[in-house]
Amino acid sequence: LQAQISMHKTTLLTRMEKLKCYSEGSGETSNSTFHIEIRYTDLFVTEDNNFTDSSQHEYFDLASRRARIYVHQSCQRIRPSQLLSPQETTGQPPKRVKVKGIAGIGKSVAVQRLVYEWAIGKSMCEFTCIFDLSFRELNLIEVPISLLELLGERFRHLKDALPDLFAAPGSLLFILDGLDEFRFSLDWKSRDKNIGLKSKLPVSELIVALIKGNLLPEASIILTTRPSTEAPKRFFQRCCVVLGFEENQVKEYTTKFYKDRKVAEKVYDYISNNDSIFVLSFIPLYCYIICTAMLEFFLGSQDVGDFKSLELSPPRTVSEVYFCYLLTTVKHHGLRASGERSTSRSEVLSQAKQQLTNLGKLAYENLLQRKIMFSRKDLENYSVTPANIQSTFLCQILHPVKEEAVEMFSFIHLTVQEHLAALYCALNLFSQEDITQALNLWCFGLQPPSASSTLLKQIDLNMDMLDSLQMFTRFFMGLLRTRLEKQLDGLVDPSQQEENGIPNGLGLWFQDQFKHREMKNETALNLLHCLMEFHTNETTTIAAPEIKKLNLFKMKLNIVDCAAMHYVLKFSPHTLQELNLGYSNIGNRGLNRLRPILHRCESLYLRYNCLDWQAAILESAVLKSNECQVRKLFMCGNNLGPEGVNELWTALENNTTVEELYLDITGITEKGTENIVNCLSKNTSLKILTIVGNDIGEVGRKRLREL
């Protein structure tokens, strides 16, 4: 048995010690591999509170989850190698563990790392054997099969050892990777049957029996899946969610990505100082895309051709990052080495035009149907030939297990599909009318009354799908600006005349939405992001003054959301009647991002936002400003502490605008009331002050009575 286990470990090492990296390498290949120790960076995993909103785009749900957990720090961090560590409640290791996370968050790579560490004897040593099974491979099993047959086929070198291994099932670990890619439906409500190792079942029933414990209940199981795929929590003793990288892990990954440490430092500094890119970088695949996109800017290639000016203006927005990524991958790999370093941008795009057009159409039409996996026939319907296409855009993700030539394809990430779909639309919607009708359709589900573009005809959008089109819409706005700036030359049909006045027309469209339309908080925020991606002063100057109130109450906002608010509202000359960010978890960093516009908010709601004494210092500076127009300030539920509120009392000494101040449950102590009488006695405008839920003591109460 030892000899066969040793052979099993050797086989696993051959498969697991290399990480495949897309769109790298040289010559004819577009993929390269790195040893797992060189590129692997650990993930931020925590216990799952089972909160997910299936109508939301995966990325936005993750961003809101991070905003809640990360700012509060109220979570137990779990290293992937600790997934089966004993639980605090029972002291026993869990038998069934579910790990969920969005596409690109690193689930499969983390699983690969676990298997690799077991094979070299570094972790999971309590298990005699690990069986790793991917649902991509299980999709190929069409006929009923027993677990014994399945493992005998998948791990032929272990076939003779299986009876001995099953004699001690408690020492076995099954890793089931990628439930979201399984093409068979799972019946979790099926009646429990007495199932043995030799019982022949459809593969879907076999998996359910294994997870529920009807088959091999003593064995341990780790299941990975995306949040949108149902796997009932009741069957698992531990449920975890992968939140990607922490800030120090982004730095570690960047350092590993580039051989040149100085280049790595430049790129990391750029990432950490750019809010939009900084938030993206927590997702490992986004981090990879960002690092690839930055190759042109920081590796000295900016002296060649029309890339010379790029280091002067690296990508600022999400759509710019993705376009740079696309350009880099097409230039170096999509052209099968025919593109030289000096090839101009328009020539690069011109050579890839047909491929990108076909891919874009495939991406767009299937995005509207929420379809992300494609057969060979699907690709051929769009004139996409798998033999000729590079993994930069599309990679084979279903590998044949036996001899059958069964293949499925997917974009390397949902956002890459969304970006190519947006590129296709940006290249085909030219008239002002088509552009605004498209936005009406994608943002509000309004069918175009008389669309001239085939892109908008006969599209039946389900209203609950609109939230999942938000990233795509932002990409479209960014790429539309790229086209207007002549950056898509080579892809744009020369016969298409650019219509004048598109920025002005879009400004009027956005103005109209803010002026006349009642919209959900998510939709309002998405429009702000669209304006930021379009990044055109003329458009934003027209739209911004119509925003009189902005209510994002109970939306979990990240730093990019704050950046979008700041970008748009700085173009408005008017006072904002109300900015409601209550229960939004923006933290000090988010508040600091909004700082330049806070003085113009008459009613400012910042309740329960994970703010501390530093935020109070920032807010006191706003109140001291000669331009301050704040009349109502709600700071309840933030840990401002005695130092923080003393800053506020000092700021109010000469402030003449604030009439109402709400400081309930803000950690005020007796010390925090020291200068309240002296400062507020000089104030001439304050009418209401509430400090309920603070432990101010007898002296504090005496001071309040005096005040």
Report what the structure shows.
This protein is of the alpha/beta class and 707 residues long. It has three domains: 1-244, Rossmann fold (3-Layer(aba) Sandwich), CATH 3.40.50.300; 247-299 and 308-427, no CATH class; 575-706, Alpha-Beta Horseshoe (Leucine-rich repeat, LRR (right-handed beta-alpha superhelix)). It is 43% helix and 10% strand. The protein is built from 29 helices and 18 strands. A seven-stranded mixed beta sheet has the order 4-3-9-5-8-7-6. Helix 24 (559-569) links the parallel strand 13 (549-551) and strand 14. Helix 16 (353-367) crosses helix 18 (414-428) and helix 21 runs parallel beside helix 23 (537-543).
Strand content: 5-15%
Query: Which architecture name of the largest domain does CATH use?
Result: 3-Layer(aba) Sandwich
- Outline: globular
- In total, the number of domains comes to 3
Largest sheet: 7 strands, mixed
Strand neighbour order, sheet with most strands? 4-3-9-5-8-7-6
Q: Tally the helices: what do you get?
A: 29
Distance between the termini: 83 Å
The parts where pLDDT drops under 50 for at least 5 residues are 22-31, 301-311, 390-405
Assigned CATH superfamily of the largest domain: P-loop containing nucleotide triphosphate hydrolases
Whole-number mean pLDDT: 84
Helix content: 40-55%
Would you tell me the structural class of the helices and strands? alpha/beta
Highest CATH level, the class of the largest domain: Alpha Beta
**Number of DSSP E strands:** 18
Cα Rg? 28 Å
Q: State the CATH topology of the largest domain.
A: Rossmann fold
